[in-house]
Each structure stands twice: as structure tokens, then as C-alpha cells.
Amino acid sequence: MGSNLSVRQVLLILRLRWPLVVALFTLVLIAAAGVSMVLPKKYTADTSLLLDIRADPLVATLMPSIASREYLGTQVEIIQSDRLAGRVVRMLGMTEGPEAVAQWRQATQGRIPIETYYGSMLRSGLSVVPARNTNLIDISFTGSDPRFVAAVANAFARAYMEFSVELRVEPSRQYGTFFDERLKSLRTQFEEAQRKLSTFQRERGIVASDERVDVEGAKLNTIMGQLAAAQAELADTSSRQRNTGTDTSPDVQQSAVVQSLKSELARAETRLSEISSIVGSNHPQRVQLEAQIGSIKQQITAEMRRVSGATATVNRVTGQKIAELTSMAEAQKRVVLSLRAQRDEMAVLQRDLETAQRAYDAVATRRSQVSLESQADQASARVLTPASEPLTHSSPNIAKNMLAAAALGIILSISAAIGWELLDRRVRSASDLAIIEGVPVLGVVSPSAERGRSGPHRPRGPLNLPQPARSSAPQLTLDEGS
Asked: Per-residue b/e over 390-410, b at no fewer than 16 CB within 10 Å?
């Protein structure tokens, strides 16, 4: 017979082999109940940590987003780390007894630290899971002592909070030492720059460099203006000197004495002309007028020479003035240039001083910030629900074990019944008779037909059977109940 079974055949097999199915199912249930009773009881304590999502104002730029998945994963790994487990071991005092030390030496021969040894034992019962879409981390610990598991769960939560503070504070303290050394160096540089600037100002006698440069520059501008005016005056006097000594020279034309004498000469010559027509050349009045005219001409000549001499004197004085102003301007230029050079040199020293001061101030500010960070002992997590001593054991869970055993028993009993049937194949239905192709089924006797033979409703007449074809196939016996 074929090995492919239909659903109807499977159900028929289970009905006929029900004692085996029931026996196996019951045996599996009894074994599961016995194992559940024998297994040692385990207790689980749970606590929850709430991570503070508020950023620290001191280190807000250095901390990642506390609600990110990476941050929560990092915190879970920290709680499960060997270092934190060793801290919990020390907090619980698990290594203080001589029995604990003897057990550690026997198990490890002292090759690993005792905190690591007992920490690995604690980690085997630890479960840390971040709650979905929250800032909560659930810490669970499973063990045989209900009081101990609650203490371990709370110890892990407390150790994590203390360790998180150390992780934030310890780098700040290390940075503080570095910044202290840097501050000393920058203070020395700042004081040296300040000393150089003070020495330079004292040696140069500089009180207010910019004001003095402005004053000396204004003085130079004044001298240069006077020099320009003197040069213009020299050009004017030189031109007048070249044209002086004649009646048409500007000095003579501008001289009031010369003009007065010329007026007086003109009147005298007019009177002489009038008298010459009346008296002779030897007349005393005419002689007097001629003498007067000669005297006036001499005075005019002398005055013209005096005016020309004054122009030369002015020209000579103006030349001397220009020479003195030129000398003063050169000296003033040297003073201004020297002051500007001093100012530039002092500006370099001032920039060095300002650079040193800015560097010192920046490091001092950072040192103050690091000092505040090193004193911030507030943990970034809070215990939301502390662990308490569990009243009932968490394993073995008899209800779950029995449900699992029932499922396993059903699978095993069905598999055993079908396997037995495949090893000892029987004819259970008409479909089981289809063995060889071309051999027809002669007939099917149902249980109701067998029962009808002895009853009042026995069918009359012969049983209608199909005519079999001639074949050498063996005859089969229908055994409905076997």
C-alpha cells in the first residue's frame, strides 16, 4: 500500500489507535509535571531606570542626543559590562568572606581578578532591555534567593548611576590638570609681553603714543605751511628785487615818500617853468627853485635806493627764514617718523600682549567651565521603580511548561500512531485497496450492512458486485476492524 495518507485516513488511524495516542500524551504530561516539580525555583527582580533627557548646560555641545537609539544601546552595554559587574560585586561585599575567596582560587587559580569572576556569575543572570519608544531601561536579575536578586538588581541600578557620574566627571578632572599647567604657561607669556611693552614705553618716554604723534604731525603741518608761505614770499621779493631801482618798479610805485617827493618835484618844476618866462637865469628866485628841484631829485634818488635796499633786505630775511623753516621741517619729519616707528613697534608689542591675554582668558574660561563640570555629581538617570523582593518564583513556570508539554505530547502521539501504522499497514478504507493499476475493487461491506444481516431489514436478493476482470492478482480480505 502507498505511504501517502489523506486526512480521512489519518483520522481513521488515530481513532483506531487511540490507546497509543492517549498513553503517549499522558506520559508527556506526567514527565513535564515531574520535571517542573524537580527543577529549582528561580526568582526574578525588576527595576527601571529613567534616563534624564534634559541636556546638561555645561556639556550640552559635547553630549549626543540622549534619546537616540545609539545612546540607549551604549548605556545597555555599560550596564552589562565587566567593570560595572565588578563594582556591583564590591558593593554587595561578595568577595569579603573566606569561602568566596577559596571558591575563586579553586575555580580560577587566581588568574583573573576576583571581581571579574563573581561579576561574570552575576552577568549570567542579568537582563538589560531598553523599553521601546521610551527613555526607560529595564534591569532584571534572576536567581534562587528572592532577597538577593532584589539586592543585585538595585545594586546594578545604583552602580550605573554612580558610574555615569564618574564617566562625566573624571575626564573633566583630567582636563582640569591640563588646563592648570596651560594656564601657568600662558600667564608667564602674558606677563612677559606686558613687561616688554612697559619697558619700551618707559625707555622711549611714551605716555600716550597716538596723541603725541598727532601733536607732532600737526606741528609738522604748520611748519610746512609756513615754509610754503615763506617760499612764496621769497619768490615775490626776488621778483621785486630784480625790477627795483626804476620809477616803474613796484617798490617805488608803492612808496608813499617817493610819490610825495615826485609830487613836490612836479610843483617845483611847474613854478620854475612859470618863473623862467619872467626872470633871467641868475634871478635869485629861479636859482632857489633850481636848487630846490635838485635837492628833491636827490631825495627821490636816495629814497628809491632806500626802498630798493629794503626789498633786498626783505628778500635776504625771507631766504634766511626759508632756510630755518626747511631745517625745522626736516627735524620735525625725523621726530614724526621716529614717533611713528615707535608707535609701530609698540603696536607689535601691544598685539603680542593682546594675543597672550586672549589666549589666557580663553583657557581661564575653559578651566572654570571644566571645574564646574568636575563638581557636577548629578547622575543622568533616575530609578523609576526600585526592585523589591519577589513573592513568587518566575521559573519553573508550571502553566507554560504544561502547555508546552501538551503541544509536544500531541505531536509525539500523532507521530507515533502514524509511524506505527506505516510499519504495520492495514486496510482501513476502500482507497487502501487501490494497490495495482487495472485491478478493480470487487465490493465494500460496510459495518451497517453486516449488522443488517441479522436484523429485520436484511436486504433481499443477491449483492450487486461488479464483474471482475480476469487477473492473477491475489484476493484481499476486507478487515474493517483489524
From this structure: beebbebeeeebbeebeeebe
- Amino acid making up residue 4: N
Residue 124, C-alpha cell as written in the block: 549570567
The band of 441, judged by pLDDT with boundaries at 50, 70 and 90, is: low
Helices (H), 243-283: 250-254, 256-276
Angstrom distance (rounded) from CA 145 to CA 154:
14
Regarding pTM above 0.90, the answer is: no
- Do the Cβ atoms of 45 and 449 come closer than 8 Å? no
What is the DSSP-derived secondary structure letter of residue 40?
A: P
| DSSP codes joined into one string, 149-162 | HHHHHHHHHHHHHH
The per-residue pLDDT for range 395-410, each reduced to its tens digit, is: 776 778 788 888 888 8
Tens-digit pLDDT profile for residues 88-115: 999 888 888 888 888 888 888 888 888 8
Contacts of 244 (CB under 8 A, 6+ apart): 250, 251, 252, 307, 308, 311, 312
Q: Grid coordinates representing 211?
A: 596723541
Pull the grid cell for residue 158: 545604583
